[in-house]
Write a structure and sequence with these properties.
nine-stranded antiparallel sheet, 2 helices, 47% strand
């Protein structure tokens, strides 16, 4: 089924991630979504014998994530990049700042109004966006931020992503998808 849009970008700080499990802050919605690109990266090792390929092993070496929103306000900037928001609502950038690990969620609507795909990436960090600005030159040229980051599997269980499609799951799952960082159901 073809995807025809993107909406509802959310982030939630990772509060803890260890052998006892992973906990998250309450997700916060960012300004309207424009783009999301997710690129899993794999390292491959090949084993040859008798003059031919015998085995291939691969391991996830990280997931590159890039997203664009039409605006990144100061509160979201501080939350995502670990910055200080002062009493005036301004941002204080310090060399010692460190971005927190966050979960990243979004929705991808399908064509023909046939539901959506809902996604959570569980653990990653975003880096400060570069700023490229230009003057108005007779016509409007929107200038919006693009934020990049690196995601990885959680320490607690090795899971890095979870997604569902609304046509294949209980509607309660998708209607509350962004209320918290959704976990896959446990199976025995």
């Amino acid at each position: 089924m073809a995807k025809v849009g993107l909406k509802n970008i959310y982030v939630a700080k990772v509060l803890s991630d260890d052998e006892n499990g992973t906990t998250y802050d309450t997700p916060r919605k960012l300004k309207p979504a424009m783009t999301v690109n997710v690129t899993p990266n794999f390292e491959q090792a090949e084993l040859y014998g008798d003059d031919q390929l015998q085995e291939v092993e691969e391991a996830l070496s990280g997931v590159d994530v890039e997203f664009g929103v039409n605006e990144l306000d100061n509160e979201d900037y501080a939350y995502i990049f670990g910055k200080t928001l002062d009493a005036n609502g301004g941002i204080v950038d310090k060399a010692t700042d460190s971005a927190p690990y966050v979960a990243f969620g979004y929705e991808l609507p399908f064509s023909g109004g046939r539901g959506s795909k809902f996604v959570w990436l569980y653990k990653g960090k975003f880096t400060l966006p570069s700023e490229e600005n230009q003057t108005k030159q007779g016509s409007t040229n929107f200038q919006t931020p693009t934020i990049s980051g690196k995601f990885m599997p959680r320490a607690s269980d090795g899971v890095w992503r979870y997604f569902v499609e609304s046509k294949s799951t209980n509607s309660e799952v998708t209607s509350t998808w962004f209320d918290e960082v959704k976990e896959p159901p446990t199976t025995n």
